[in-house]
Amino acid sequence: MPSPLSSVRVGVAALRVNPLRTTLSTLGVIIGVASIVAVLSLGDGMEAFARSQIAGTTALQNVFISPATHDTVDGIAVARERITLFTAGDVADAARRIPGLSAAAVTVSGTTLMDDPRGGRPRAARVTAATPGAAALYGVEMGRGRFFTGAEVARDSAVAVVSDATARALSPDGDAARALGMTVRLRGTPLRVVGVVAPDTAARGLAVYVPLGAGPRVMSAAEAGRPRMLVLKAARVEGVDSVTRATEAWLRRRFGGGTKDFQVGTYRARAEQASRAFLLFKVFMGAIAGISLLVGGIGIMNVLLASVTERTREIGIRKAVGARRRDIVLQFLSEAVAITGSGSLLGLLLGLAAAFGITAAMRASLGAPVHAGLSVSTMLVAALSAIVVGLSFGTWPALRAARLSPIDAIRHE
Predict the structure, then answer these.
(1) 104 CB-side CA count, 13 A
(2) Which of 70, 312, 334, 345 has the highest local Cβ count within 10 Å?
């Protein structure tokens, strides 16, 4: 009685008898797997690019917490005598206790007047007093130098980070690089420039970032007295709702008064739209990849059905000498797995090469920083799906061969 291993050897040996047929069937798997790998890799890269754009240029992932400044009494808004003043300690505690955050900061924004180092009239600038997490919250990309640190905020250091336009206004010859290390005076307060933000064509006017404690010194009294805002950023746009719930629970534990003492705001509707868009994108890309692999699976089935017809007499002889039905099934399934296994390996390499080539062309022609995504999950999906396709489409030909009567099969011409 033949062993299962001998059935596998017979199946693999049969592939070498007709190399052209084997090559054509393997080619279908190669194209199918290459398509699914290329599509998934491109999809991962495009999704990562879209997420980075959303995180860096929009506030969809932000949760805004402002202290309540008024109570409504008899239909009249009455100003509170005391309001919560967020500190750097609150930022550290929120980052430690609220899961799913990528950044957190306390900010207060206003305007200031910047002395012209060339002796001209003072220049108006927007100023943001904040903790270091503001760089990640607002997508601040440094062109030169660095953003101020938590230690500098704690020491209330006289440092500043300026926009590219502000740096050019400070420099004697308009060279932004020369502003690094210079002293900028905001309402008479000297601050050393430790960083220059990368150029932004969409930016308008002059802008300066200063440590949180420097805000009252460089803003007007009315602006400096504004309530500070605590801003938290969810790591993913899908996590905004869970971060909001965790934030409300944290506020109750941290301050005891409950959420009535705070206003918690998000761009919830737009965040949900973005989440649905990502889900639809994944489903669409998966459907395209599935169709490609389905075509390869049909090719495998057709080749194996033709093989059953051509080798009917051989199957009859094997069954006559003691081969069981499961031995015949195993023989043809081993052929299918061998085809899909080799095809998936070559298709994986071809698909990755195509994905990296396409993204390189996109970067060269469009200037978009898009890169193919290479993840373990993509490779596993491609390999497992190829094996599943081989087993699925190879089962019917294998069962058809196993059901043949030995006498009828031997008599077959």
Answers:
(1) 21
(2) 334
Three-class SS state of 301? helix
What kind and span of H or E run contains 265?
Answer: strand 262-266
The one-character DSSP state at 81 is S
Calpha distance 167→157 (Å, rounded)? 20
pLDDT in tens, the chain (413 residues): 444 454 445 445 555 556 666 676 677 677 777 777 787 788 778 777 877 777 777 778 889 988 887 777 777 878 777 778 888 889 999 999 999 998 899 999 999 999 888 777 888 999 999 999 988 888 888 999 999 998 999 888 999 999 999 999 888 888 888 889 999 999 989 999 999 999 876 677 899 999 998 888 999 888 877 888 899 999 888 888 899 999 989 988 888 766 678 888 888 777 777 778 877 877 777 777 677 667 666 766 666 566 666 666 666 666 666 767 777 677 667 767 777 777 777 888 888 888 888 888 888 887 777 788 777 776 777 667 767 776 776 666 666 666 666 665 555 55
Question: Which amino acid belongs to residue 278?
Answer: F
Give the rounded distance of the alpha carbon of 135 from its chain centre: 19
Whole-angstrom Cα distance, residue 230 to residue 385? 46
Determine the Cα–Cα distance for residues 211 and 161; give it in Å rounded to an integer.
Answer: 9
To the nearest 10°, report the CA torsion of 218, 224, 227, 232. Answer: 0
101-114 vs 262-266, strand pairing mode: unpaired
- Cα dihedral angle (346, 349, 353, 359), rounded to 10 degrees? 120
* Beta-sheet strands, E only, within 168-239: 183-186, 189-197, 206-211, 229-234
149/105 Cα distance (integer angstroms): 12
Question: CB 299: neighbour CB atoms within 10 A?
Answer: 21
Alpha carbons 254 and 258: distance in angstroms, whole number: 9
Separation CA 249–CA 301 (nearest Å) = 57
Tell me the residue type at 347: G
What is d(CA 144, CA 272) in angstroms, rounded to the nearest whole number? 36
* Domain extent listing, the chain: 4-54+274-411, 62-266
Quote the CA–CA distance of 391 and 383 in Å, as a whole number.
Answer: 13
